[in-house]
Amino acid sequence: MLDSAQSPLAIHHGEYMNAELLQLAQRMPKAELHLHIEGSLEPELLFRLADRNGIRLNYPDVNALRAAYAFNNLQEFLDIYYIGMSVLREEEDFYDLTWAYLERVHRDNVVHVEIFFDSQAHLDRGIPLEVQIGGIRRALRDGLAQLGISSKLILSFLRHLPEAHALETLALAQPFLDQLDGFGLDSSEIGHPPEQFARVFARCRELGFRVTAHAGEEGPAEYVRQALDLLRVDRIDHGNHSLDDAALVRRLTAEGKILTVCPLSNLKLRVVQTMDRHPILTMLERGLKATVNSDDPAYFGGYVNDNYRALIAHLPVTREDLYRLARNSFEGAWISEEAKATYLDELDRAFATDRRGARDMSRRVAGRAI
Ligand code: ADE
Ligand code: ZN
């Protein structure tokens, strides 16, 4: 008897399944909850902005810059990421950056985004919050008006800087609080545990903001625990190393905590060695509310749908997994219950329509295979 890997029918079926899943992943509505806007700065735009602002780059062209995007760990990426964002000077630059991202993910059927910006990195270069927030917010407004994409804006504190710096930034942000929807924590993780930011996060929560933190990307499960206990986060960004601690997984599951997982990022930063060893399906199996996100798409090889595509190509993803991942993205969004219900209805409709299409397609493929 043929084993399934050799059976022509199985191959047909496998190909059909992948094609169907790819199409479904592409056209299902989804939210992106983990996106650093500076990480969506494509080399072409980076060069254009450098030119516009009279900045000389150390790379002769786009190809040379792209060739430098090979990383062994998070820090190697961050070193080049902070250099890249130095071309952002004017309000218009932040607008162009954000608008380019929105136009791009509109094609991926992303209908809601929650984006981080690294305000301290720009402040340190002398770019006022007004310029940063003004440009990003104007593009987000246009994104809603012209593309129908709703959005939230999250100021993310840099954990390689002292907490005092974060507290100063929060004070500077006072006049702009009505334009912010939450606070986060990112940058170099190991050696900068969440406990170092307990005071600034407490202040953000007192002000009525939602909070999230990168934890368990390179750092241990203990950092995820600290993010929960000491920062009282609403979500965990990445959270991969939670899986090392069964009690923590049970807790995250019981609390229904959303994990904003970033598969291509994990591969590029060597958090996972190969995509077929990515733990996202294990997370779902254990009841964790994982979502799919792109993190820094210009640096890691793709946007949200590229992440779905990589998962489908390398893991036994099912239709139910896709549904669960997209559903989690809306459940974890910082939007009203009404908005959630509307998006979840849209999602259900996409899957219901697809089911009819899939049955027709299945008959056609089966006919050909026999
Ligand atoms: N800043 C931008 N991308 C990041 C990531 N993946 N981890 C930590 N900080 C980041
Ligand atoms: Zn991130």
TrEMBL record:
Its Gene Ontology cellular component terms are: cytosol
Q: What is its EC number?
A: 3.5.4.2
Query: Where in the numbering of this chain does the Adenosine deaminase domain appear?
Result: 29-349
Which GO MF terms does the UniProt record name? adenine deaminase activity; zinc ion binding
- Write down the chemical reaction(s) this protein catalyses: adenine + H2O + H(+) = hypoxanthine + NH4(+)
Which positions are catalytic residues? Answer: 217
Residues bound to Zn(2+) are 34, 36, 214, 295
Query: Which amino acids does the record list as binding substrate?
Result: 296
Gene Ontology biological process = adenine catabolic process; hypoxanthine salvage; nucleotide metabolic process
Keyword list (alphabetical) reads:
Hydrolase, Metal-binding, Nucleotide metabolism, Zinc
Which cofactors does this gene product need?
A: Zn(2+)
Q: How is the cofactor bound?
A: Binds 1 zinc ion per subunit.
Give the transmembrane region(s).
none
Name of one Pfam family that matches: A_deaminase
InterPro entries documented for this protein = A_deaminase_dom, ADE, Ado/ade_deaminase, Metal_Hydrolase
Q: Give the family from UniProt.
A: Belongs to the metallo-dependent hydrolases superfamily. Adenosine and AMP deaminases family. Adenine deaminase type 2 subfamily.
Protein name as annotated? Adenine deaminase
